[in-house]
Amino acid sequence: MYHPVDDDSAEQRDARQWQFYLLPTALLPAGQASLALSKLYRLGAEQVGWSDLRPAVDSLRQRLEAGAPVRGMLPLFRLEPMKW
After folding, report:
1. What are the extents of the domains in the chain?
2. What is the pLDDT of residues 43-82, one digit of tens each?
3. pTM of the model as a whole
């Protein structure tokens, strides 16, 4: 989640002002508690607003269950630790 409004119109309790980023769990770096927006973009996160969050989650879940390619799935190998 990210709240881009920082002026007098900001209302942190209003979910319509938030942006949500969807990314398959397998793409998240293990053991990392937070990510910068730039990292989310590089991983291929899908940005959606509050009103589109439920349909976007359902769509991502269906694509993953069907084994369909999902944006951001290709760089999976970069997240695995190097084995020497």
Report:
1. 15-79
2. 888 888 889 999 998 988 888 888 877 665 433 333 334 4
3. 0.65
Q: State how far the alpha carbon of 45 is from the alpha carbons of 1, 24, 38, 82, in Å.
A: 11, 8, 10, 24
- Concatenating the DSSP letter of every residue in 45-84 gives PEEEEHHHHHHHHHHHHHHHHHT---TT-TTHHHHSPP--
Backbone angles phi, psi at 13, to 5 degrees: -80, -5
pLDDT digits (tens, 9 = 90+) for 9-18: 777 778 887 8
Residues whose CB is less than 8 angstroms from the CB of residue 45 and which lie 6 or more positions away in sequence, other chains included: 21, 22, 23, 72
Query: At residue 24, what is the residue type?
Result: P
3 near 18, Cβ under 8 Å?
yes
